[in-house]
Design goal:
- The complex is a heterodimer.
- By secondary structure, chain A is of the alpha+beta class.
- Chain A has eight helices and 20 strands.
- In chain A, strands 6-7-8-3-9-10 form a six-stranded mixed sheet, sandwiched between helices. In chain A, strands 15-19-16-17-18 form a five-stranded antiparallel sheet, with no helix packed on it. A four-stranded antiparallel sheet of chain A has the order 2-1-4-5, with helices on one face.
- In chain A, a hairpin with a 3-residue loop joins strand 16 and strand 17.
- In chain A, helix 2 crosses helix 3, helix 2 packs parallel to helix 4 and helix 3 crosses helix 4.
- The longest helix of chain A is centred in the middle third of the chain and has 18 residues.
- Chain B is α+β, with helices and mostly antiparallel strands.
- Chain B has eight helices and 19 strands.
- In chain B, a hairpin with a 5-residue loop joins strand 18 and strand 19.
- The longest helix of chain B has 18 residues.
- The radius of gyration of chain B is 24 Å and the shape is globular.
- The chains are: A alpha+beta, B alpha+beta.
- The interface between A and B is medium-sized, with 33 and 33 residues.
Chain lengths: 365, 338
């Protein structure tokens, strides 16, 4: 198994810089997500780790050895592409055995390894069936089996669940994560789906325009987004962002612990540093409190029922806001409501730089 | 706009019955969503109404007309498909105007222009009208596809997973917009999806399909809170409803014939002091940001519920779990209403 350390990695295609000076470390045994919108550089980064692209600069350390300029086949890394790439005329057994045969492994050893993989994936009973007639789920398991049978140092996966429908994707995500927990293999997984990243990852790197925006544990990235981009990209609905102007933080005067939204004072969490000018207040939909009271008010424009909860959309003088509230909370389109926030959950961003203002240690978590 | 009625409609493909004696009324001005997994008969139902398939039995009425024998063009329906179907060499304006230039429905140019502008405003793409269709993003292309249906004033709009190829953010935005547009137009809409969030958030009524049969029809809230069966209960709700054997909790009063319990997160209480509480082993805390899922095992049954994101409960803990007004089902998965 392996640790993968990325150091100042850069990739340019002519004038276009796909990945700019990226650094992060994938710990041994971690399920690691590369997350971002299309064109953010996540797939290029993965392809460089695989050896399918050569970096313009920087290092890729596989267990301390720089493999950045090494050919793909010498890296002992398995790349899982679109998972349905199977040989349809071969049996499940022969599909899984294929990579071992091409390595010249002995018949008995192949038999043993295929049986072991089939047991892990729960497909032992269909080993001698042709893959042509299998269900989508079983085909996907066979494709996975072919990747894991070699026991490489690390797995690289590029949106392996992208083509599946929502229900089945959720199911396969659980299985993939379970498989990882059983095998403990370092895995780097590319996705544009923030929920998939949150659900499966031990760590997430969020990329945008070739730049690493944030690197951390899923809940940390969700609770404390480092940039406005991350705030909007993670979470569904996204973090509410309300623009305001003012001076906040230590030494900025009596009103510096509040944001003024459309004339109403909103208490802020304790900031570690002062800031002034154009600022943005960030609040997650589940941290918005609706009631009849309050100076900061909005008009309800939509209510989306979700069973356990509902999403209420409000128009305020400071912008549109979404609140996630229990489904039993009675609310109708057209109502005017007071809007409150859970102070310790709020984020404040510099609107110009897009960066979050740091909070004092006590406010974290 | 018009009411659309299916009576005893059946469609077979060889040995497979894709749509099985379906009775369904889409009321005038309603937003009906047909929900079900792949193969449930959603798309076939839509195609039967559009006239792209002929039923083996049953009648289809649009407004006051029996259209069962009519051609697709004569039925006055507008359909939006999953994949955008735009003319790449035409501008957005020409794509939107195209359905209005059909020889079957001649309209004067000023009226076409007005209509195209109004629809572009509605879809928030007026500044893109003179772009080539191919110079648009995926989301914009799908808006234009929807726009090509909206420029017409058909008896019913039929939409087949129009948002499924879009990314999550765009899908969330377009959900709200489609709902707004439908309400503004007072349009009759039949919308097919396997995405329960689309069904819950947009529908005035949800029809749940199971292997060609319509197994429940009602408002999203009614279907979620009062499902007819385990199958229906499992179609709505995230995390999915937990189904366990009836004896998983001790000494709880149950209607006669109860074989299975259905427990949504709101049917599960954690902590001592609840009647019928029983010890459960926590297997995993799954943090999704907005919701934190607590996976646990009770009497060998695996269950999932929701908990506070910053909960101190951890994998390996033993916690007391109790049922709160669960749903009861018989051995075949049919609901038993207490």
């Amino acid at each position: 198994m392996a640790e993968i350390a990325i150091r100042s990695l850069r990739k340019a295609f002519g004038d276009f810089v796909a990945v700019q000076e990226s650094s992060f470390t994938v710990a041994d045994g971690e399920f690691f997500m590369l997350l971002g919108p299309s064109g953010c550089g996540k797939t290029t980064t993965l392809r460089m780790i695989a050896g399918l692209e050569l970096p313009s600069a920087g290092q890729i350390l596989l267990d301390g050895q720089d493999v950045a300029q090494m050919p793909a086949q010498e890296r002992d890394i398995a790349f899982v592409f679109q998972m349905f790439a199977l040989y349809p005329h071969l049996t499940v057994r022969n599909n899984i055995a294929y990579p071992l045969r091409s390595q010249g492994m002995g018949r008995e050893e192949i038999r043993r390894k295929v049986a072991e993989v089939a047991r892990i994936l729960g497909i032992a009973s269909i080993l001698d069936r042709p893959v042509g007639g299998l269900s989508g789920g079983d085909r996907q398991r066979v494709a996975l089996g072919r990747a894991i049978v070699r026991r490489p140092k690390a797995f690289l996966m590029d949106e392996p669940l992208g083509a599946l429908d929502a229900e089945f994707r959720e199911h396969m995500a659980e299985e993939l994560r379970g498989l990882h927990d059983e095998m403990g293999a370092t895995t780097v997984y590319v996705t544009h789906d923030q929920l998939e990243a949150m659900q499966m990852g031990d760590k997430i790197v969020v990329m945008n325009h070739g730049v690493v925006e944030q690197f951390g544990a899923p809940q940390e990235i969700y609770d404390r987004p480092a940039t406005l981009f991350v705030a909007e990209f993670i979470g569904s609905p996204a973090m509410n962002l309300l623009a305001f102007e003012g001076s906040v933080g230590p030494g900025m005067g009596a009103d510096a612990q509040t944001a003024t939204l459309s004339g109403a004072a909103v208490p802020l969490p304790p900031l570690a540093a002062a800031a002034n000018g154009r600022l943005v207040l960030g609040v997650r939909p589940e941290h918005v409190r609706l009631s009849d009271e309050g100076a900061f008010r909005g008009a309800v424009t939509a209510v989306e029922y979700l069973g356990t909860t509902q999403i209420v959309t409000l128009t305020t003088p400071s912008g549109t806001l979404k609140a996630r509230v229990p489904a039993r909370f009675a609310v109708e389109v057209g109502a005017r409501l007071g809007i409150g926030f859970d102070t310790h959950t709020l984020s404040v961003f510099n609107a110009t730089s897009g960066h979050a203002l740091p909070l004092t240690g006590a406010a974290h978590g | 706009m018009a009411e659309v009625t299916l009576t005893g409609v059946t469609k077979r493909f060889g040995a497979t019955t894709a749509v099985d004696t379906v009775d369904l009324t889409v009321p005038d001005g309603a937003f009906v969503v047909l929900l079900g997994p792949t193969g449930a008969g959603k798309t076939t139902s839509l195609r039967l109404i559009a006239g792209l398939e002929k039923p083996d039995a049953g009648r289809i009425r649009i407004g006051n007309r029996d259209v069962t024998a009519e051609t697709p063009a004569a039925r006055d329906v507008a359909m939006v498909f999953q994949q955008y179907s735009l003319y790449p060499h035409l501008s957005v304006r020409e794509n939107l105007a195209f359905p209005l230039k059909s020889p079957l429905r001649p309209q004067n140019p000023a009226a076409v222009d007005r209509k195209v502008k109004a629809v572009a405003e509605m879809l928030r793409i007026p500044h893109k009208l003179d772009n080539r269709a191919t110079a648009l993003s995926g989301g914009e292309m799908q808006r234009v596809s929807i726009g090509r249906a909206l420029v017409r004033d058909p008896a019913i709009y039929l939409m087949d997973e129009p948002l499924s190829s879009l990314d999550a953010k765009l899908r969330a935005d377009l959900r709200v917009e489609l709902k707004r547009i439908q309400a503004e137009l007072g349009a009759t809409m039949l919308y097919v999806t396997h995405d329960q969030i689309e069904a819950m958030t947009m529908a005035t009524q949800v029809g749940v399909l199971d292997r060609g049969r319509l197994v429940q029809f009602g408002s999203p809230r009614a279907v979620y809170e009062d499902p007819n069966s385990v199958y229906v209960a499992a179609r709505l709700g995230l995390p999915r409803i937990n189904i366990a054997k009836a004896d998983v909790f001790d000494g709880m009063a149950m209607p006669p014939g109860t074989a299975l319990l259905g427990l949504r997160p709101e049917h599960i209480a954690i902590g001592t002091g609840h009647p019928h509480a029983r010890a459960a082993q926590v297997t995993r805390i799954e943090r999704l940001g907005d919701q934190t899922r607590l996976h646990f095992v009770i009497q060998a049954a695996e269950m999932v519920t929701l908990t506070d994101p910053h909960t101190s409960i951890a994998a390996g803990d033993e916690i007391p779990v109790a049922p709160v007004d669960p749903l009861f089902f018989d051995v075949d998965g049919h609901r038993i209403r207490a």
